[in-house]
Amino acid sequence: MTETNSGRHIEISWSDLGITVTAELDGRNAELADALWDALPYRSLQGHALVAGEHLYHAAPIPSLLHLPADTRIADRREAPDGTLFCSGLQHVGIKYGTLTEPMPATPVGRIRQEDIPALLEAGKAIWDSVYATKKPILVEVRRAGTTGGHSIPKLAATDAGASRLIDDVHAATEKAWLAEPKELADLHAGLIPSGAGSFDTVLPTLLFVNGETRPLGYATYGGLVRGAVQGMPMDSLRHMTRLLVGVPAEFLGYCGLEQLWGFTQRFLDCLDGLDREDFLSVVGQLALYINCLGGWNLHLYPWEAGDHLRQLRPDEPALQS
Prior knowledge:
Mean pLDDT: 95
Strand order of the largest sheet: 3-9-1-2-8-6-7-5-4
Radius of gyration: 20 Å
Largest sheet: 9 strands, antiparallel
Shape: globular
Helix content: 40-55%
Order of helices and strands: EEHEEEEEEHEHHHHHHH
Structural class: alpha+beta
């Protein structure tokens, strides 16, 4: 890193909306901020929180976000100022743009400049509409301020031949799916399910179950394996936990239509015993990025508007009578 933390500015741009905002990396959580800065520029599918409130997030092609330590935490992100920029252990870059309901700790790295908050609010409303209703994808580009944009997906390295070939194939699949909806997921959401998964020809329950398996597989299982490897968990334990955790959900997702993910998982399990710590970390890091990419697209494609008739009751509102 050749620049100091103060004075590093990044632009977050949604060209589909004609909106760009600028944030300063303000010195908090220097290792996370450095990882973000060094990964620029990149593009990603822009997402919106579905249960937490007015919060934007996207999957960032930064494998180290899964394990880098944080020295500054906000105990409750609801209390963070609007415009706060976060890096997350879920491999997300997020921005609070309004009221949040979910009380959780968060790791800030910067803040959107005050004069850009109105544009951020405009972007937030449009992105919610994209995720919840229209399903027209909105891409985000993150770049160093004053520079041209671009995009790349990192490819990790392994010395084991089988692991190296697997990483090559997972990287290629991630590149293909990162900015355009994966065909397997698009088919699934269109009701094209070769296995027939979905009792009595239903589709929505299968979509729900796929979402419910994909998110924890990427966030918790593969993210947890990355952290375990970095933090020195014995390799025998890592291999044992891998076999306990990855096979069943991946096989189910394959049955539901994500056959490529199940194929990658089988190849990972086949070469697992021959991997040292570095090769293991590379494989699980590359797979985490791929699965989190699938998870982002699944959240975008899911027909959330199907439940539009269901609205929360507030404490002062009477229950509807049937």
